[in-house]
Amino acid sequence: MAVNPPTILIVDDDASQRQLLGGFVDSLGCQTVQADSGEQALNELSKHRPDMVLLDVRLPGIDGLQTLAEIRKGDADLPVLLITAYADPRQALIAGRAGAEDYLSKPIDLEELRVAITDHLDLAKEGSQDSPAAGKILPPGMVWKSPSMRRLLDTIAVVAPSDVPVLITGESGTGKEVVASLIHAWSPRAEGPLIAANCASLPETLIESELFGHTKGAFTGAAESRQGFFRAADGGSLLLDEIGELPLTLQPKLLRILETGEVSPVGSDRMVRIDTRLIAATNRNLEEEVATGGFREDLFYRINVIELAIPPLRDRPDDVLPLARHFATEFAGRPVRMSPQAMNCLLVNSWSGNVRELRNAIQRACLLCRGDVILPEHLPAKIARAAASPDQDTSSPPGRLSQMERAAILATLEECNGNRTQAAKKLGISRRALIYKLQAIEAQNQHQDR
User: Fold this and answer.
1) 16 neighbors 188 (Cβ within 8 angstroms)
2) C-alpha distances in angstroms, 222 versus 204, 225, 241, 272, 284?
3) Angular region, 127: left φ>0, alpha ψ -120 to 50, beta rest
4) Are residues 156 and 183 in contact, defined by beta-carbon separation less than 8 angstroms?
5) Cβ 165 vs Cβ 279: under 8 Å
6) Percent of the chain scored above 70 by pLDDT?
7) pLDDT band, very low/low/confident/very high, at 403 (cuts 50, 70, 90)
């Protein structure tokens, strides 16, 4: 006999936020009912009792805490998770006393939300759901194998269909533009434009007109009107890279655009309606910028509804060789092999420049490689020396593999095209011993991803 999936009531006055949460709840195998106010939520509850309520604190009319109090008058056991844009320990204490099961702050950590939902609804024992990203087409430049990138892709698959602003964070060279392109490609806006603007490269005297447009004669040199990046991205997405470099004087105007969906070109008192999704990116810590006054707090919370943090390449070594192989094929125009020694160099390098550094290293190697095999001498000297560096960790606690041993195993397995029997022979160990070591590598990966 089929069992009806759990129902979750989502209460939020922001339609795009309801869309985001609804898509995520659907991916967990649950049904959703939505309400845009506390009053509507109470009306829905009078008709049908859900299995859980996701309740935003800031609501028009009666707020989330008042709505929670009304819910508790009629139902003391219904699980309620409060969500707010501002993490306030005092409000968390009030929420707990009012009867909330949990208290989550924005930007919402979808993994944290998943755990909260599965724990309260006891979904975990039903088995894991299919990956939200399963079956979706990845662009050619999106190569991954690590668990941390798999989880990132799953989050992108949930976030992409909504219109909520997204903040992509990560070190320089991790591939923030690639992630932005994937969000756009997996969204209903895929047929519209994806416009990219780098706030750090725009002249400070022209950045306002570049972003918001200007009218003819608005300032000296404005010989003709310009629509600006926001209007150029109408119907699509706008990537504002290095948003931490946006001058403080322009941040209120960006906040107003996000809140109203209207832009006012420089030199005009007319508001122009736009339908543009904002994707912001930065390698700076915006929370620290907010604390020091370099970035507006209200704008930070407005763009940071969902944060996608791209892990640095050094924290996902499983991606190094697949990426290197992809770049080698791209630059050489044909399959290129890498010697075990060269693969070992790539695996033990620290990759301070992340994917960009790896790409440049493989491009150099393909230019210097006259045959079909990349050798250590074809790599930049710093990387070629990495495997022999005394700084590399060649010892490890019992039960854990050293970085050198791990690199040798992965490189040999890559050389043998994944054939464990051949790899074990090359390494001089039994196949069973190789399996144990691969299990240890996987355990180390899972430990790093926690």
Assistant:
1) no
2) 16, 7, 25, 19, 33
3) left
4) yes
5) yes
6) 88
7) low
Q: The pTM is what?
A: 0.79
- The dihedral over CA atoms of 405, 409, 411, 414, expressed in degrees to the nearest 10, equals -170
Q: How many Å apart are CA 416 and CA 439, to the nearest integer?
A: 18
User: Cis ω on the peptide bond leading into residue 107 (within 30° of 0)?
Assistant: yes
Q: Which three-class secondary structure state does DSSP give residue 308?
A: strand
How many beta carbons lie within 10 A of that of residue 124, not counting itself?
12
Query: What is the fold, at CATH topology level, of the domain defined by 7-126?
Result: Rossmann fold (3.40.50)
- CATH code: domain 314-449 is 1.10.8.60
Is residue 370 helix, strand or coil? coil
Q: 147-311, which class in CATH?
A: alpha beta
- The residue behind tokens 């493989």 is 362
Looking at the chain, the domain(s) classified CATH 3.40.50.2300 span: 7-126
CA distance 195 to 279: 10
Largest CA distance in the chain: 78
| Cis previous bond, 335, omega within 30 | no
Question: Helix H segments across 28-130?
Answer: 38-47, 64-74, 89-98, 110-121
CA 31 to chain centre: 25
Instruction: Please provide the size of the chain in residues.
Output: 450
Decide which of 86 and 27 is more confident: 27
In this predicted model, what pLDDT tens digit does every residue of 127-183 receive, in sequence order?
445 678 877 888 777 888 888 898 899 999 999 999 999 999 999 999 999 999 999
